[in-house]
Known about the structure:
This protein has nine helices and 14 strands. It is an alpha+beta fold. It folds into two domains: 159 residues, no CATH class; 83 residues, no CATH class. The strands form four sheets. Strands 1, 4, 7, 8, 9, 10, 11 and 14 form an eight-stranded antiparallel sheet that branches. A two-stranded antiparallel ribbon has the order 2-3. It has a two-stranded antiparallel sheet with strand order 5-6. A hairpin with a 5-residue loop joins strand 2 and strand 3. Helix 1 crosses helix 8. The longest helix is centred in the first third of the chain and has 16 residues.
Amino acid sequence: MAISNRYDFVLLFDVKDGNPNGDPDAGNLPRIDAETGRGLVTDVCLKRKVRNFVQLTHSNDPGLYIFVKSKEISGEETVLNRVIREAHEELGHDLTAKVDADGRKREKDGKAQGSEVAKARKFLCDNFFDIRTFGAVMSTGPNAGQVRGPVQITFARSFDPIVVSEHSLTVSAARMEEKGYDEQVGIQGRKFTVPYGLYMAHGFVSANLADQTGFNENDLSLLWQALSSMFEHDRSAARGLMATRGLYVFKHDSKLGNAPAHDLFDRVGVKKIAQGPARQFSDYQVQINEQNMPEGVVLQRVLG
C-alpha cells in the first residue's frame, strides 16, 4: 500500500580529501558555484548512490530491482530499451502485431500503445525500486510511458567555500612495448580533491505521486537506510572519506502537508565553530529548532 503522508527531509554529508562529484565538463574538477565558491553535488549523483546501495543489498529481491543499474556494481551492461521490451514480453504483448491489445491499428511496429503502455508502466513500477521512487522516462524503444517519482532531491551545497587541491600523479611502469620507457613514465595526470566540505541537500516525498507508482512504507524505510549508509559502499581513491552526518525527516500527518517545506528546512541549521578553516565534522555544530513545531508535523531524527 502506498504511503499516506508527505515527508520533507534534510541530508547532511561530508567529504575529506576527496572529490564528492567531479564535473566531466571541467576536467573532473569538484563542482562549484562560480559566484560563491561553495561546493555542489548534483541530485543525479546522490540518486546514483541510493540506487547502488539498493542494488548491492537487494539485487535478487523481487520488487527491488534497479532499472538504471551501474555496471560497476552488477558487472553487466544494462540496456534500458531491452528491459522495457522484456516487460512487454512478460505481459504477453506482441508489439509486432498489426493490431494492439485494444484492437486498434498499431501506429509503429515494435512500439506499444494504449493499454499496453499503461500495463507495462505498472509492471515496471511494481518490480523496480528506482522507478517507484525517482520515476523514469520509459517512452523510448518499445515504450512504457513516463513516471514522475514521488521522491525528489535537490543539489547539495557546501556551507563554506571549498578549496580545490590539485595533485600531480606519476606513472612508474610502461604499458606499451612499441613506445620508449621514458616516454611513458613520470607525470601523467592530475587528481583534484577538497580538503574538507560539509554539504546539505534537501528532499521531498509526495504521497500523491506515491499513489501513482506504488511507493510504500517498506520503500520509504529502505530509502532512509540507503541515504544513511550509501557512502559506506561507495569507497574509491577519490571518495575515501565521505559519510552521511545527518538525516532529519519532517513527517506530515496528511498527504498534502501541514507546513511549507522551506519553513521546516530553516529549522535545521549548521554553525561553524572552528576558528580556522574547517577540516572535520566537529568543526561545525548542527542546530535543530524543535520548538513550536507546526501542528501535524513531527521531526524524525533518522541520523544525527
